[in-house]
């Protein structure tokens, strides 16, 4: 039987492309998002991932229609930028509600179904920023580092039930994520314009980054792969950088990241 896949944040960017790739791979695909985008082979279910009850209802809807749920891709997320000192706690909480607890909400909703079935795959879309936290994008980096930690913990917890969990870490990707980023330039004059220069560099890197289709093809392959590792980095460049992060002393990594994003 065709596998049933659910993608959060599947109305645009990497999520939309991942839903399309899973459909092309033979899955029956549903996507959760706040807005509907008509996509061939993908059924939209409206829900805000930060609302646990809405996510539970959406998952129940899929299960009642299909009688199974084999794959969950936790992709929903957004970014904020700004100086950590001047970032309002409320903005940080809003980010965590989507990026971290959106992942938690969807995972908690599908796990009982997968546990009863004795099988399931959960793919959490993280970021390379989880490995190398980016200055002036601190809370986004925190949210993705938390997703990585959550992934490893539940991968161990759920393994005896036949449920495998992994995190995929794209690097810079050319999507609407860049234009949707919530920017806060407060305090930039105190920091000698470093925040605005950093955000400009980030946006340039993202605009010249990998395509969402490239990231989605990788995610789709991982979603249907027989066995998975806990963590994946997409692309030769980022795999090399991840190796450097592991091998170099922390002070060296800090200097390199500072030269790139905090001058």
Can you offer a commentary on this structure?
- The model has no long low-confidence stretch (mean pLDDT 97).
- The N and C termini lie far apart (54 Å).
- It contains ten helices and nine strands.
- The protein has helices spanning 13-24, 52-66, 89-99, 101-117, 138-158, 177-180, 194-207, 212-224, 236-247, 250-261, and strands spanning 4-8, 28-33, 42-46, 71-74, 80-81, 120-125, 163-169, 182-183, 231-233.
- Strand 6 (120-125), helix 5 (138-158) and strand 7 form a beta-alpha-beta unit.
- Strands 3-2-1-4-6-7-9 form a seven-stranded parallel sheet, with helices on both faces. The chain has a two-stranded parallel ribbon with strand order 5-8.
- The protein is of the alpha/beta class and 263 residues long.
- The protein is 50% helix and 15% strand.
- Helix 1 crosses helix 8 (212-224) and helix 3 packs parallel to helix 5.
- It is globular and about 60 Å long.
How would you classify the helix and strand content by structural class? Answer: alpha/beta
Give me the Rg, rounded. 18 Å
What percentage of amino acids are in beta strands? 15-25%
- Strand count, sense and closure of the main sheet? 7 strands, parallel
Distance between the termini: 54 Å
Q: Extract low-pLDDT stretches.
A: none
Whole-number mean pLDDT: 97
**Number of E strands:** 9
What is the helix fraction of residues, given as a range? 40-55%
Strand order of the largest sheet: 3-2-1-4-6-7-9
Q: How would you describe the shape?
A: globular
The helix tally amounts to 10
The ordered H/E elements are EHEEHEEHHEHEHEHHEHH
């Amino acid at each position: 039987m065709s596998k049933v896949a659910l993608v959060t944040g599947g109305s645009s960017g990497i999520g939309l492309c991942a839903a399309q790739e899973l459909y092309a791979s033979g899955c029956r695909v549903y996507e959760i998002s706040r807005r509907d985008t008509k996509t061939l082979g993908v059924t939209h279910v409206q829900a805000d991932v930060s609302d646990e009850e809405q996510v539970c209802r959406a998952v129940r809807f899929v299960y009642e229609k299909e009688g199974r749920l084999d794959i969950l891709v936790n992709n929903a997320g957004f970014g904020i930028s700004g100086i950590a000192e001047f970032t309002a706690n409320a903005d940080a909480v809003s980010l965590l509600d989507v990026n971290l607890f959106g992942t938690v909400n969807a995972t908690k909703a599908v796990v009982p179904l997968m546990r009863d079935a004795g099988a399931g795959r959960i793919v959490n879309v993280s970021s390379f920023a989880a490995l190398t936290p980016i200055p002036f994008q601190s809370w986004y980096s925190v949210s993705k580092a938390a997703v990585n930690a959550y992934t490893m913990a539940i991968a161990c917890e759920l393994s005896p039930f036949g449920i495998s969990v992994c995190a995929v870490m794209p690097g810079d990707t050319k999507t609407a994520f860049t234009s949707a980023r919530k920017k806060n330039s407060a305090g930039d004059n105190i920091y000698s314009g470093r925040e605005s220069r950093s955000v400009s560099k980030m946006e340039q890197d993202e605009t010249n980054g990998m395509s969402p289709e490239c990231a989605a093809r990788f995610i789709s392959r991982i979603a249907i792969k027989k066995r998975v590792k806990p963590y994946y980095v997409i692309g030769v460049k980022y795999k090399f950088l991840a190796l450097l992060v592991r091998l170099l002393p922390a002070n060296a990594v800090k200097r390199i990241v500072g030269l790139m994003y905090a001058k």
